[in-house]
Amino acid sequence: MAEKKRNRIFWLEGVTEHEVLKSLNDRAPSRFRQQAARRRLVVTMAVLIFALAVQTLLPATKLQTYLEFTLLAAVVVLYFVLRKAVRHIADSPTELLDERQIAARDAAFTVAYRLLAVAFTFYVLLYIAHDVLQGDPSPGSNETRFGVMALWISAAMLAAALPAMVLAWNLPSEPAVED
Amino acid sequence: MSRSKEDPVFNRVEELRLQQGLSRQQLADAVGVHYQTIGYLERGEYSPSLLLALKISGVLGTEVSEIFSIRPFRKSR
After folding, report:
1. Domain count, chain B
2. Angstroms from A100 CA to nearest CA on chain B
3. pLDDT given for residue A130 in this prediction
């Protein structure tokens, strides 16, 4: 009797073996097989992450809170769509990829690392601006804490998504199994 | 994903593969890569490693220099 292959979990990469293999071998048509569609997704993701960061400068109102949660939910959803759009290559361990995929993943990480350096400068400036606009907040107040938290969540999501974003941007449209 | 757009590597993989009646998937399985890697390679969007080039050469039964070149192949070949 054939032994059912164990599904390995790659904790550091945040993927499972079955998830990656299924994604890599997925033949179902998807708009994200085309570079143009993937690039639109990247732009949308970038705009949403930017908006999530910048909205922390808005006065703390109910509307701002709704906006914050909506943006956060949209960013998280798009993060998973983006991972799938690049067939999890950005998050896969080397052993599950072939040489082209490894090269593409590593090139994306190199670019993403450089972009992150610039992005984090922006976040520091935003943090300072947030502090200035808050005036003299009472230390530890919920509004201040949550505003800053959304800023760092935005930074964390950018750090997590940027390699996949770079990869999605750079990968040419996929060839069919047989053109 | 060509390593260098300025230094393209031309290839006859598609032509030779079709001559042998192999699908991309079959060639990919034989050399241990994803079928899309063969597709990107045939479109000139990826330059293979020496190891992959040698494996392809072995499967197609043709010398590496007959499959890959830094100069375009003549159409008549």
Report:
1. 1
2. 6
3. 81
Residue A67 lies in a domain: yes
pTM to 2 decimals?
Answer: 0.86
Would you mind telling me the total number of residues written for chain A in this entry? Answer: 179
Confidence of residue B19 (pLDDT cuts 50, 70, 90): very high
Position A64 scores a pLDDT of: 87
The beta-carbon neighbor of A174 closest among B3, B32, B36 is B36
Contact across the interface for B1 and A174, Cβ inside 8 Å: no
CA distance linking residue A88 with residue A171, whole number of Å: 13
Going by their DSSP bridges, the two strands A15-16 and B10-11 should be labelled as unpaired
- A137 φ/ψ angles, rounded to the nearest 5 degrees: -70, 150
* Minimum-distance CB partner of A172 among B3, B23, B45: B45
Taking CA–CA distances from B23, the nearest residue in chain A reads A178
> How close A78 comes to chain B (CA, Å)?
24
Nearest CA to B12 out of B31, B35, B38, B51 is that of B38
Average pLDDT over residues A117-143: 78
- Indicate the range of A45-59, A95-109, A146-160, B30-44 predicted with least confidence: A146-160
Q: Is A178 within the bounds of a domain?
A: no
Which residue range(s) make up the domain with A71? 32-170
Q: Does B55 fall in a domain?
A: yes
